[in-house]
Design goal:
heterodimer; A: mainly beta; seven-stranded mixed sheet; 0% helix; B: mainly beta
Chain lengths: 115, 113
């Protein structure tokens, strides 16, 4: 069945290292979201794309985070350099064009630990 | 700023009982609401949604009620089962071309056998 996939599922890295997380949205979905989840802040929207163009990245620290969609089947979220406060679960979600109902389908997440 | 919040951070029920999870929202412009279920180690999973032109929507064992007068949303789960144990989030969309969802902090539902 169609689902959002994310890689890697777990990542442990040291402070200062570059981290790249990947997401494959559901085929046919033209809107892709990146969220970060922590115990303290809950689910926070970092950025979202429509038709591969960034629409809103106001939730993302611009100095170290970047999000791209090289093609319709791949979205990436990069952190460079990573910091311990970036430790969280990062979720990708995809959805259809805004319509009557705007459900977002979430991937399994990437659990990032920065030491 | 405006946000979505939950009244109860935890809820414990007996198997077979009905569960009610509540959510308060503050953005009067929100016109679309979703309930998500998140099990441990997994991403949020869609349960049910509702548009602001409706008061009630039913799914399989779940019902969402929307009271726009007091900006309140609830999720009712009938005959709660152990598999319903999870964190439940409400989310709102403020409408228009804005496709962003604002999530509440979540309520942990524990179902006791």
């Amino acid at each position: 069945d169609a689902r959002v996939t994310q890689t890697p599922r777990h990542k442990v890295t040291e402070m200062g290292q570059e981290v790249t997380m990947r997401c494959q949205p559901i085929l046919g979905h033209n809107t892709v979201f990146w969220y970060r989840q922590t115990m303290m802040q809950g689910l926070e929207l970092l950025a979202y794309f429509r038709n591969r163009a960034p629409l809103d990245d106001s939730g993302m620290p611009k100095d170290r985070f970047s999000a791209e969609m090289p093609d319709a089947t791949l979205a990436t979220l990069k952190i460079q350099p990573s910091e311990p406060r970036d430790s969280a679960v990062y979720f990708c979600a995809s959805g259809l064009p805004p319509g009557l109902y705007n459900e977002q389908f979430f991937g399994p997440g990437t659990r990032l630990t920065v030491l | 700023g405006e946000s979505v919040g939950l009244h109860l951070p935890t809820l414990s029920v007996q198997e077979g009982d009905n569960s009610i999870i509540n959510c308060a929202y503050s953005n009067s412009a929100s016109d679309y609401f979703i309930w998500y279920k998140q099990e441990s180690g997994k991403g949020p999973q869609f349960i049910i949604d509702i548009r602001s032109n409706m008061d009630k929507r039913q799914g399989q064992r779940v019902t969402v009620l929307l009271n726009k007068t007091v900006k309140h949303l609830s999720l009712q789960i009938a005959a709660t089962q152990p598999g319903d144990s999870a964190v439940y989030f409400c989310a709102e969309n403020s409408g228009g071309s804005n496709y962003k969802l604002t999530f509440g902090k979540g309520t942990l539902l524990t179902v006791n056998p």
